[in-house]
Amino acid sequence: MLDFMSKSKIPATGEGYLGEIMVHRISRAVGIVENVTEARAGWPPEISLKLPDGTFKKGKLSDFREANSSERKKISPVGTNAVKS
Predict the structure, then answer these.
(1) Cα separation of 40 and 46, whole Å?
(2) The pTM is what?
């Protein structure tokens, strides 16, 4: 019943990050996780972050961090990926 309030995330495997708003640590680009390649046999999990302009940032999960509240406001609600002004 509380699934909508919180989601279980497992950083070691990458499970639970799909659809989350994340920030690329180096470029500070904010986007929504579109794809997760789960960790296997010593390889770290990798994610693809879709940015509001339609481009992607790909990398290891450790290259990204969770967005804070002000960064979350830059991404529009689910369904569109336009940046709010």
Answers:
(1) 11
(2) 0.75
Enter the DSSP assignment of 25: T
- The Cα–Cα gap between 53 and 9 comes to 26
Report pLDDT digits (tens) over 20-64: 999 999 999 999 999 999 888 888 999 999 999 999 999 999 999
Structurally, how many domains does the chain consist of?
1
Residue 66 lies in a domain: yes
Task: Give the number of other Cβ atoms within 10 Å of residue 31's Cβ.
Answer: 25
**Which structural domain range is residue 37 located in?**
23-72
Residue 1 included in any domain: no
